[in-house]
Input
Amino acid sequence: MNKNIKLTGDEISYIAGFLDGDGCLLAQLVRRKDYRYGYQIRVSIYFYQKTKRHWFILWLKKKLKYGTIRKRIDGMSEYCIVGAQPVKTILGFIGHKLRIKHKLCKLILVIIEDLKNVQNKKDFLQVAMLVDQVAYFNDSKKRKITASVVENFLNSP
Output
């Protein structure tokens, strides 16, 4: 399901470059009491731009179709695409043009594929460990939920 996305070669290159510079690829472990293993593995793409250039974020959304936009109180506009299928679709278009984030892109795509094959706690924990690797690429400093936190939860009575 690609929502009929049509991008020129130049647009693909430009959007990939923008993601490399002013964007973020994330995989996160999010506590969810109603989820089978107590946590959700959430993948997302973020683009950031000063709100005075909010028009550019609107253009991106028009081109990529998925996601939501918000104007933050700090003067930044944020365009966020969340979910395995939308992220996989967008990375399918631009991933091959990424330079700085190309390894991170491949890792996010592995996480998306591996999530489809989770059958048990052990499988889920293996994917959670891949999420920990994403934090390395993103120089994460404030992360509190790691694979070891998930493992402790899964092993608790």
Q: What stands out?
A: The longest helix spans residues 121-137. Strands lie at 23-31, 39-50, 68-71, 76-82.
